[in-house]
Fold:
Amino acid sequence: MEIIYPSLIEEAYHHSKKFHPEITKEAIYRHFYDADLIKENGDPTEKALSEGVVKDYTEDWDLTFEAFLAIYPVFRSFDPKHFKKINHFWEMDLALQEKILDQWEQEIFTEEEIIDLTAFFEERLPSEKEQ
Structure:
């Protein structure tokens, strides 16, 4: 039987595997749970969020651009003219998307910036029903 781990555990596993090839998802889950960083279901605890161990990428409706940048600081280095609020959420134009993809392929971004970008684009990918 295959165990499906929460995305937080999957991300930690992917990162940790680079430095500790012997690590398991179960060990990461157990460590996070014992350290009170996740609940039994894998959601981050209030402690993990307040201490900044886990970042919350929740975008509320009608955020100011500054509040949007606080969630995704990676976008501070790009010209704000590429961003526009559409249906209450900040989106970027195609030119910037292509520039970011090009820079991503050239491995210009830090690991933290890649996490921000992944979170941003995951929320904007069409669901299977939409495809």
Notes: The longest strand covers residues 83-86. DSSP finds six helices and two strands in the chain. Residues 7-19 form the longest helix (13 residues).
